[in-house]
Amino acid sequence: MRIIKINIIILLVFLLSGIGASGKDYDLIENSEFVFKYLPHNNSDYEINNFFIREIARYNLTGLYSTGFTMHYAIHKKIKHISLNTFAVEVELQSELLTGSTAYREFDISDILMPEMLDLKVHVEENGNYIISKELKGITWENDHVFQIHFAFEALDENKEYQLVVEDIHFYSDDEDKNAFLKRQKDVDNYYASIAAIDFAISKYNPGEINLNSLIASFVRIKELERVHQNLSNSEFITELKLDKNDPAGFHGKIVELEKEIIKYNYRFDVFVNSLDFIKLNTSIEKYATIYVNEITRFYMESQTVTHSNTAHFYKLGGLNYQNAYLANYSNGLKKFLIKTQYCNSIKSIENKLEELYFPSLPIKSKAANRRGELLHCQRDTCKCSSFL
Fold it and tell me: How far is CA 126 from its chain centroid?
């Protein structure tokens, strides 16, 4: 954040008679507040605050003109005699807290809404008459949300009582605040999208009854559940949003629920496979490829129908690249049942082709998106690739 400390030397020579022996100090602390509400005008300085209010109102389902927040602050005004004919002026505004609509989808964003910029006018007065007036713009806070203004003036008459008047105070946010808001907004939206994704995965990737007819489909669905879990449990928003302190929609509970489902399905799958000495698949590996593409594109297809705030996250889950650790896990799972099938002599070639053709980038089955996926055709020891539209 920009830190600007304003030092202004203003020389005031008063052609007044007499020079006093000592100066008189002025020290006053006042409490005040500044209300942020939607202002439909073209003031570029306030546009970012308008943006905040629009976004808060849109997702919190509140009226635009009834949404707003208030900054409570203290203003400390001082005039101090520092040397012969010289006075120092200090104005300090310290923001204390924000009240009102300071949450976005149940997450506190007051740290971002706290304004960074200040415009104001400072007047030095004597007996109700302006001695000097200064308009200051673009002041930024120092530490702990404190705005500080310092300047000095000289006067021949040290015995006069000088006062400070601060008016036309206007707080507002800058582009860095907006960028911080957009980042927080993305994290919050991804938080809720992830919970929706877990519900979607549990519903759509339920392997159901595991038998010979559903063995391959069940395997793919379990592995997709594991892939979703791996991705979401390492989400950046977990630390950014401090979910250990505030988890309003229960993300951690949803992750635990997904883990339990994966453990249950893996157990059922292993029990079934281990109960058989030989598995005669009635589905060719070519058919397996079709099942695979259909299953892994569920999130991509769903991204076109979910709410706007969930679209990007679902799309990302539908096009997630596989990592090496996941490839090893996937290969180990394949071996468990392929070793007992008629494809037992083709396992290595199948794995090689999967790594080469499937996993570098997830194939998407969507003519609308003008994308092609690769279907793997494997029959015993021969593997070849053909295009799938």
Answer: 51
